Amino acid sequence: MKSKFIPLILILIFLITFVIFFKGLKNSNIYTPDTNLKKEVPLFELKSFENNSIIISEKIFEDNKYYLMNIWASWCIPCREEHKFLMKLKKDKRIELIGFNYKDNFKKASSFLKDLGNPYNVIVSDKDGTASIEWGAYGVPESFLVYQNNIIKRFIGPINNKDLLEIEKIIR
Amino acid sequence: MKFIPIFLIISIILNSNLLKANEIKTENKIAKNLRCLICQGQSVYDSDSEFAISLKLVIKNKIQQGLSEEQIYSFLKMKYGEWILYDPVFNRNTYFLWLLPILIFLAGGAIIIIRFYNKK
User: Fold this and answer.
1) How far is A89 from chain B (nearest CA, A)?
2) Nearest-by-CA chain B residue for A129
3) Across the interface, do B79 and A133 touch by the CB < 8 Å criterion?
4) Do B65 and B119 have their domain in common?
5) FRET label pair with A81: which of A46, A87, B70, B71, CA 20 to 30 Å apart?
6) Which CATH number is B26's domain given?
7) How many domains does chain B divide into?
8) Domain count of chain A?
9) Cβ–Cβ of B54/A31 closer than 8 Å?
10) 3-class SS at B95?
11) pTM, whole model, 2 decimals?
12) Do A139 and B58 lie within an 8 Å CB cutoff?
């Protein structure tokens, strides 16, 4: 009786382990952050990009209006790619663009905007990148769609046509 | 009598150095326990990516603001999710992970004890 019981348990354990590992094999091992998190906009106090005046987050984000907070830098190549989509989005009056100039040099950033156009209503400069961490950002470029002081959607990486359509669908 | 102020100054400098050293120690400890989210297989401490550099700066600022280690971890967990911590938290998704080794250990022990007594 006993000698029959033990192999059966062993086979069962083996089977369960096999099933778990087999299922795990199919799971993606690439970490993809949740992009639909509903989070409150973090408070910040940053220097303005154009002059040295201080800009407070509460003054930027009003209720009942959509904002796209875009982290960019002149040294970031994908930012150049996404810029034309931001310029397209600028024409839409339902949304305002907030630029977060990330670890950048003022001269180079200014000439970047001169060459490609300035889509932003407000630009603040995040000299050491700490304010971006408060937003939970990974790097440049990254964008956050804000509504009623909440982050309703985030876009990691450059914005493309598909993202643009998605934004337009949300703010409609 | 002249020595007293000099002695005081030296002791203050030494003490503040010690304080600073402790701060750097916790700073490094926290950075070692965080996963660099944009690198592969590196901790924030090991990485020199822009993300890691900024994160190290944030940790430093938070320590100077007087936040404890736990508070910093929970702050980062709130911002980036559990994945940023190297130590998986005990919850519904990780019961199996945490309990399986203990179960295997107990089962093994039980088998050994049963065999031992049966032989006797």
Assistant:
1) 27
2) B54
3) yes
4) no
5) A46
6) 1.10.8.640
7) 2
8) 1
9) no
10) helix
11) 0.76
12) no
